[in-house]
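Here is one chain, start to finish.
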Amino acid sequence: MVNPVHLKTLLEVTRLGSFAAAASTLGYTASAVSQQMSALERDTGVVLFQRSARSVVPTEAAVVMTRHAAKVLTDMEALMAAASKTQDAANQELRLGIFPSLATYVLPRILKNPAWKNLGIDLKVSVAEPGQTIQGLRTGGDLDLAVVFQVGQTGFAWPNTINRQWIGDDNFRVVLPAGWGFRSDAKVAADHLSEMPWIMHHPGTSDAMVIERLFAGCNLHPRVVAHSDDFHASLEMAAAGLGAALVPELALRHRPDGVVVLDVPEIRLARNVFALLINDRKTARVQLFVDLLAETLAGMRTAVNSP
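Its structure:
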């Protein structure tokens, strides 16, 4: 299913002629706009832009899609307006499972969004890690919708009755103690970090195995001084000078003083965020909530360079 958020972004890109200009108008980063357009190309199976180092040129397919997208979005706005005016319509209960960092930084923004009040949803929330949340979707489970993440091709499995929808990525970043003398956002080769002390995930977890393989491929063999699956704890230990750490951008929303964020080109890894929904509980209201979740996640600009 094509994400309406991506259609709205497509309209702005074709109107303004660049990812950067569309990002400025919509409140995204240029990277987020580029990722949305790549996702739209994957979902539709057509090339929408001819990309070069300095410009993006819409293809004929993009022009045709833009023409139809405007009508689709207008119809959706009419649907939302009609729903908000139906005062006597019963609210729909939605039992949501969500992982901690999304519950901390993204869900509160949704609940404060005026669009949320128009959805007519009574939300019941369970905050847990993806493995536990997926169990709640199985037959007789206590959830209707689960928002989970995967790192690499980790092996979560779910029944055929579950619909999966990608809603965004949460990129990992390398953080170091500020006292180590690196400038924030400096570009550093991975092998320069090999002999430094590191705070790593607990061995044996799926995330840890993906990271270990990535580090080994970069010829990065960290000297491990701590194991932590709590990103806030990892950041605080890094700020105190214990070691370097690999943390997702959502965790950097409230990074402590005393850490710098590096650009390590060889280390490109993300938590891919998905919404998992039981097919027979997928209503228009629930889909609008999922779209709002994707839009909110895309619009959050991680201030990794701010103090």
